[in-house]
Write a structure and sequence with these properties.
By secondary structure, this protein is mainly α. It has one domain. The chain has 13 helices and 2 strands; from the N terminus they run H-H-H-H-H-H-H-H-H-E-H-H-H-H-E. It starts with a helix and ends in a 12-residue tail after the last strand. The relative contact order is 0.12.
Length: 311
C-alpha cells in the first residue's frame, strides 16, 4: 500500500522553479521538439495528407518544367551506364528512376519549403503555438487558421506556382542560350541571379506565413516584410534553408527509388521537425521581436507574448 499512499504521490509536487534559467535558441528548440514530438508528428502527417493533391500536381509539372535538366542528367547517366556495361534492358528502368527521384524531391521541396497556401497558414499557426508554448489543438485550431487565411493563402500558392513554372524555365532558356551563342558570360550571370532569387524566395516563406497568421496586413506587405526579414537575418536564414535543402536532396540524389521513397516517407512523418520547424521557430521569434512594439501593425489574435531571451 505504501506504493500508492506512502510515497507522497497524493501531494502537489515542487512545481516549476520560477527562477530556473530559460533555455535559448537551439536548446529551447530541442526541448520543444522532445516534449511535443507526438504533436509534431500529428501536425506534419495531417498537413502532408491534405497537401497530397498539390504534391501530385508538382510531381507532374516537374516533368515539363525541368525537362531540360532531367534530359541532361539522363544523358550523363546513360553514358556512365554504357561505360560500366549495364545491360540495355535495364537502362530504361534506371532512367525512369532518375525522373522519379527528381520529381519526388521537387514535390517534397515545394510542399515543405514553400508550402501549400492556406494549409501552410494552419501549420505555421500550430508551430507558432509550440514555439510560444501556448495550448493548441492541432486539427481544430489549425483548420480554423486555414479558413481564416484562405484568401491570402491561395494568393501565395498562386504566386508560388507561377514562380515555380517561370523561373526554372527562364534558367533553362538562358543556360541554353549561353551555350549556343557568344553571350555565355551574360547568360551565366542571369542564371546565377535567378538561382539566388529562388533561394531568397525560399527563405521568405516561413516569414510570409508567420506574418499572415499574426497580423492584418495587405497581400503585398506579406512579401515585402518577409523579404526584409529574410535579408535582415540573412546568415541564420541561409544556414537553416541550406541545411533543409541538403536533407531533401541527399536521399533522392544518392539512393535511387529507395532514397526517393525514404524522402517521401520522411516528409509524411517527422520531416517537418527537421526541415520546416527550425525555420518556423526562428521566424516566429524574429517577428515577435521585430513587430511587437509596432503600433501600426494590427494583431489578429491575442497580443504576442514577450521573449526575455535574445534571438
Amino acid at each position: 500500500m505504501g506504493l500508492f499512499f506512502g510515497g507522497g504521490y497524493d501531494r502537489p509536487g515542487a512545481g516549476v522553479d520560477p527562477n530556473a534559467p530559460k533555455k535559448r535558441g537551439f536548446f529551447l528548440y530541442m526541448e520543444l521538439v522532445t516534449r511535443k514530438f507526438g504533436s509534431f508528428i500529428k501536425a506534419g502527417f495531417l498537413y502532408s495528407l491534405c497537401a497530397l493533391p498539390l504534391m501530385a500536381l508538382i510531381y507532374v509539372l516537374t516533368v515539363f518544367v525541368f525537362s531540360q535538366p532531367i534530359a541532361a542528367i539522363q544523358t550523363t547517366a546513360l553514358n556512365i551506364m554504357r561505360q560500366n556495361g549495364v545491360p540495355e534492358a535495364d537502362i530504361p528502368g534506371q532512367l525512369g528512376t532518375i525522373t522519379f527521384s527528381i520529381c519526388s524531391m521537387t514535390a517534397v521541396f515545394f510542399a515543405v519549403m514553400w508550402g501549400a497556401g492556406p494549409l501552410s497558414a494552419g501549420l505555421s499557426y500550430v508551430f507558432r503555438c509550440f514555439t510560444r508554448e501556448q495550448p493548441v489543438w492541432v486539427w481544430s485550431d489549425g483548420k480554423d487558421k486555414v479558413k481564416e487565411n484562405m484568401k491570402q493563402g491561395i494568393g501565395v500558392m498562386v504566386v508560388d506556382l507561377l514562380f515555380f513554372i517561370f523561373v526554372p524555365v527562364a534558367i533553362s532558356f538562358y543556360y541554353a542560350l549561353g551555350s549556343a551563342t557568344g553571350m555565355k558570360f551574360i547568360c551565366s550571370l542571369i542564371v546565377y541571379v535567378l538561382l539566388v532569387l529562388m533561394f531568397i524566395y525560399t527563405m521568405m516563406h516561413p516569414y510570409i506565413f508567420q506574418l499572415m497568421i499574426t497580423f492584418e496586413c495587405h497581400f503585398k506587405d506579406l512579401f515585402k516584410n518577409a523579404l526584409l526579414l529574410a535579408l535582415a537575418k540573412l546568415p541564420v536564414n541561409v544556414i537553416l534553408t541550406a541545411l533543409s535543402l541538403l536533407i531533401i536532396i541527399a536521399p533522392a540524389a544518392l539512393g535511387g527509388v529507395m532514397g526517393a521513397m525514404g524522402l517521401v516517407l520522411i516528409g509524411l512523418t517527422f520531416g517537418y521537425i527537421i526541415l520546416r520547424y527550425p525555420m518556423e521557430f526562428y521566424a516566429a521569434r524574429v517577428i515577435q521581436k521585430t513587430f511587437l512594439n509596432d503600433r501600426s501593425m494590427v494583431v489578429k489574435d491575442k497580443k504576442p507574448v514577450e521573449y526575455e531571451e535574445d534571438i
